[in-house]
Amino acid sequence: GRLKKGLSKTRRGFVSQIQGLFKGYSSINEELFEDLEEILIQADVGVHTTMKLVENLKERADEEKIKDPSQLMGLLKDELTELLNAEGGIETQDKPTVLMVVGVNGVGKTTTIGKIAKRAKNANKKVLLAAGDTFRAAAIEQLQAWAAEVGTELISHQEGADAAAVAYDAVQAAKSRDNDLLIVDTAGRLHTQENLMEELKKVKKVITREAGDEMRVEVLLVLDATTGQNAVSQAKKFDQAVDVDGIALTKLDGTAKGGVVISVTEELDIPIKLIGVGEDVADLQDFEVDSFIAALFD
Ligand code: GDP
Can you tell me which residues bind GTP (predicted)? Predict the structure, then answer.
């Protein structure tokens, strides 16, 4: 369905290269593994993760006395499933949740917030949005538009206001209005990254303090899959500043190098919770390892 369609570039890209590679060799040898390494690195799997993956594959092929290269595909799928194993989705069941959404401008943060809000609303959750990117008037307006479309309330201040003050008001409002889910947008300007990280730290501190025991706090980082290894280095910076709990990886439909899914998970040890495979609301999906691997390879 949608997932398979959204991943078609990656299927035609690195997945078919791997399939071709395994078909092209009549026996398993060092050269095959070197070619595999090259394909994986070019597909943005990341050097470190690629080495580990290929090493594991070699060991297993050896242990299981596999002679036919075509059998490597099954092993590779197993290894990838193990690497990617994580809980998908944003949990809103047990306790009211504050979802702080971070990421640099243009990655699809606002769209992701809108989509999460819409899905939660459809699941009969009481949702509140907060326009915490006070740096750009357009960001506040975009969120207003989503709030109107989804039918949720929005907490916003003037452009240039203190983002932490917006967060404070939003958490107070969510508690008094018994919201199930408060989604706080944040700034993502790139040119003043030092200030941005300081601002995000402050926002998280205020959210955590005001949420107290009443609300769970979760930080979701939105990354653009088409930026490849850049996404990985961005993630490291955000994680250092605000301790990221989960990742939404957008625009997987726009890249043939879907390998970034693997390097993000492995090199950061942060689970991917959502993936975006298109511009439609239905294209933001909970990340489920088995269906993801099946959509890629089957
Ligand atoms: P923000 O600056 O991070 O808030 O980014 P926006 O939410 O405004 O999104 C930037 C652009 O990316 C918009 O045109 C979105 O429609 C588009 N976008 C977001 N997610 C996806 C996705 O999964 N696939 C595709 N193809 N486009 C996406």
Answer: 103-110, 185-189, 250-253
